[in-house]
TrEMBL record:
Residues 410-438 have a biased composition (Basic residues). Residues 392-409 have a biased composition (Basic and acidic residues). The lineage of its organism: Bacteria, Bacillati, Actinomycetota, Actinomycetes, Streptosporangiales. Keywords: Heme, Iron, Metal-binding, Monooxygenase, Oxidoreductase. Belongs to the cytochrome P450 family. The keyword ATP-binding does not apply. One of its GO terms (molecular function) is iron ion binding. This is Cytochrome P450. It comes from Streptosporangium canum. Residues 392-474 are annotated as: Disordered.
Length: 474
């Protein structure tokens, strides 16, 4: 597969040195940090700030100061105080206990796909529902409201949304979460929002903080993983040797390493980690002055040959665990154990259950997400033919943690099934409509508008949203 020209230009810059000045949409010229080692050093440095409201912060689009989405754009100690309150459900052991339930969701969605008409849009039928169903269950958000929260999430992460549109979408989601907090206060359940209401009662957390945290977790919990599922599938279909390795393996370690390699190779959060220097910092012989912006281009960092030999090759057998697809430092992704679990289950189930899965259109016809801060595809039309490969007929396999083989009542968090959810959909959809009526959708919101088709795979082809001119000399 060809490496896109944008990547080649940035890789050339990377070879010249670890830092380069770039010009942003507003004329500012922050530093683009291109190399893996310097990116990690700066992301772990307490002298850099993630606070979007500080002067010099290199935002990718016009910002309204009050549009902060919770602790992801805050510094310690406030960041640590809030993050600590939602850390426990994402601990590896707690997440691992969800494996059978997530496997069940994945299996049922595949059953539905197989029973339905072809071709099918994998994004709509599978990639979006898997993480949305999981995060809804964890948070205690009704899945029947998914159109509402998915549309508003899209507006928030859309680069060309106006500050007003972004603020409106944030307001709708915050209002929606606030209503849910009311419901949880009145009648708590076994979910994260209910646990946040306990902290509201003790005065540890304000209503506004709890609602903003809910917005962050809801957006981060579905949008990123959904893009990894669809884009990862496309990358594998374009690399059939790697797909065959993954599909035919019984080795769980290979599945784990495939997930890490796809995270490295695709690096969907292609806007870079944005920060501003609080003090003068010297790094790699260069002085970064206090108040200067920094964009850690983690996608190019994940292709730094010093960290990953032959970086443009997708090789699911390589050890890619040290990638920076989840960032690095205090803001490193909170949900990474959950994302990993979901991707391991999806990648080890989908291609095995549908071994003849293939694109139902040309690669050039796929609409890529050039306009958002998370890269991916808007649609992925796929089809398959029905007869199984001989090998599959002879060697049926229960994926690890499958609900048919490993279900351990009592130990497993009881997620309602996808079908159960659909049966309950009319009633809760009505409830959702009431909420939406109270917080009308933003005019000109993201909706289902599709951008121009065609683009690049892997995601690093469109690395730095908001960098309007290429790298310039410092
Ligand atoms: C493949 C899927 C995912 C990718 C690639 C991803 C990527 C990232 C990255 C790069 C960051 C760091 C942002 C920064 O340093 O500025 C981050 C932070 C975060 N992610 Fe994820 N993420 C994924 C899935 C999830 C999931 C499933 C959740 C669950 C709710 C989640 C919740 C968060 C939160 C809360 C933060 C903020 C952490 C902090 O500021 O302390 N993410 N993610």
């Amino acid at each position: 597969m060809n490496v896109p020209s944008g990547v080649l230009a940035l890789r050339a810059k990377q070879q010249e040195g670890p830092l380069a000045r770039v010009r942003l949409w507003d004329g500012s010229t922050p530093w683009l940090v291109t190399r893996y080692a310097e990116q990690r050093a700066l992301l772990a440095d307490p002298r850099v700030s993630a606070d979007i409201s500080r002067p010099g912060y290199p935002s990718s689009a016009p910002v309204n100061g009050s549009s902060t989405v919770s602790f992801i754009l805050m510094d310690d100690p406030e960041h640590a105080r809030l993050r600590r309150m939602v850390t426990a459900p994402f601990a590896i052991k707690r997440v691992e206990a969800l494996r059978p339930a997530v496997q069940k969701i994945v299996d049922e969605l595949i059953d539905d796909m197989l029973a339905g008409p072809k071709p099918v849009d994998l994004v709509e039928a599978f990639a979006l529902p898997v993480p949305s169903l999981v995060i809804c269950e964890l948070l205690g958000v009704p899945y029947s409201d998914h159109d509402f929260f998915q549309d508003n999430s899209k507006t928030i992460i859309k680069r060309d949304a106006s500050p007003e549109q972004r603020m409106a979408a944030l307001g709708h989601l915050a209002g929606y979460l606030d209503n849910l907090l009311d419901e949880k206060l009145a009648s708590p359940g076994d979910d994260m929002l209910s646990r946040l209401t306990e902290r509201i009662k003790t005065g540890e957390l304000s209503r506004r903080e709890a609602a903003q945290m809910g917005v962050l977790l809801l957006i981060a919990g579905h949008e990123t993983t959904a893009n990894m599922i669809a884009l990862g599938t496309l990358a594998l279909l374009e690399n059939p040797d790697q797909l065959a390795l993954l599909r035919d393996t019984d080795d769980e370690k290979l599945v784990v390493s495939a997930v890490e390699e796809l995270l490295r190779y695709l690096h969907i959060t292609h806007n870079g980690r944005r920060r501003v220097a609080l003090e003068d910092i010297e790094i790699a012989g260069q002085l970064i002055r206090a108040g200067e912006g920094l964009i850690m281009a983690n996608d190019i960092g994940n292709r730094d040959p010093d960290a990953f030999p032959d970086p443009d090759r997708l090789d699911i057998r390589r050890d890619a665990r040290h990638h920076v697809a989840f960032g690095f430092g205090v803001h490193q992704c909170l949900g990474q154990p959950l994302a990993r679990l979901e991707l391991q289950i999806v990648y080890s189930t989908l291609y095995r259950r549908i071994p003849t899965l293939r694109l139902a259109t040309d690669l050039e016809q796929i609409p890529f997400k050039h306009d958002g801060s998370v890269y991916g595809v808007y649609e992925l039309p796929v089809t398959w033919w029905l007869f199984p490969r001989t090998a599959d007929r002879q060697r049926p396999r229960q994926p690890r943690g499958s609900h048919e083989s490993d279900h351990r009542p009592g130990q497993v968090r009881r997620f309602r099934t996808v079908r159960g959810r659909r049966r309950g959909r009319v009633r809760s959809a009505r409830r959702g409509r009431h909420r939406r009526a109270a917080q009308p959708r933003p005019a000109g919101g993201a909706g289902r508008r599709r951008p121009a088709r065609g683009g690049g795979l892997p995601g690093a082809g469109h690395p730095h949203r908001g960098v309007t001119s290429g790298p310039i000399q410092s």
